[in-house]
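User: Can you predict the 3D structure of Amidohydrolase? Sequence below.
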Amino acid sequence: MRLIKNGKILTMAGKIYEKGCVLIDGKKIAAIEQSIEETEEMEIIDVKGGWVMPGIIEAHCHVGITEEKKGIEGDDCNEITDPITPYLRAIDGINTLDAAFDDAVRAGITSIMVGPGSANVVGGQFVFMKTKGRVIDELIIKAPAAMKVAFGENPKRNYGGKEKMPGTRMAIAGLLREEIFKAKAYLKKKETAAQKKETFELDFRLEPWIPVLKKQIPLKAHVHRADDILTAIRIAKEFELNMTLDHCSEGYLIPEEVARSGFDAIVGPALTTRNKIEVQNVSFKTPGILHQSGVRIAITTDHPVIPIQYLPKCAGFAARDGLGIEEGLKAITIYPAEICGVADRLGSLEVGKDADIAVFNDNPMQTLTHTLYTFIDGEVVYSHEHVHTPKEICK
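Assistant: Sure. Here are the predicted structure tokens for Amidohydrolase:
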């Protein structure tokens, strides 16, 4: 058992302990109290006033599937040979030895949503996973966790120049509608065959749509411009699907429409150049405006667009520009856990949840703040003592 004591405990579940303790038993949180009696079998970790929080969560990134400094040899993010590839699985392209995983752990980021990029109209299946370990099958929390779809410039640029659809936004929407229409017909035939106890031949390319159609996982829609956001909403409503609006850069221009859709927004990256037409209006004000309109928000780096270790700082900029400190912290903990469908295990410090915990010497959204400890499944996977002395880190 491990006891974290003398911490400012931010549970993200409605309660804050200005000076409290968290008890870890195995891989789970066993207790959270102002004071917990110490016993001989406990490993005591005195954080001396550090901020104790749920492990930080990145709701949209390409860690391990777009490796750093490895060029085409390490880039498995986009299969740019076919605009419709729902059967591709992120778990088959992620290298857990990518240096970004260590960067994430050092920043207190304990779990991430990883998947294909936005070159295709349908890119494939995302996975929700933890950030420490070598065997991806042992890190998976949820797979598949979402189905990637993309609107706007990227599919147009990758296929329009090849004299192949899609070359327009109309074609993107048309191809997606056609694919979902086929998937619905396939599911109906499969269900009818099951009812009649008839033989049914499985279609590998359409099977991945079944959890989407049954609302077990959402569409994960790459959308920057307001018109693309509205098209994504239109199609999801037409086929009665769940969806997250990823990037949602111009969502602040249509906040009421986004709120009425009922879909969550995973906002970012904003700490980057405006290198495409569709991101000309990117702003750290977007999360605050959408939140004030009633939209649930998560912040994303879209790593490697922004290095993943700067996720807490991106939340800080959003907090400064209208989101606020409390909502900024929630946007990298409990909200992404809820949006990604893993809040039963992650996102808040509560008894029975995974002991994924991040400890900082101050507010992690501030630039001078250091990570003191990162715990994943109750194990210390990062300690500041490896790179700093306690005197340096805590003063």
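The longest strand covers residues 140-150. Residues 23 and 31 are 5 Å apart (CA to CA).
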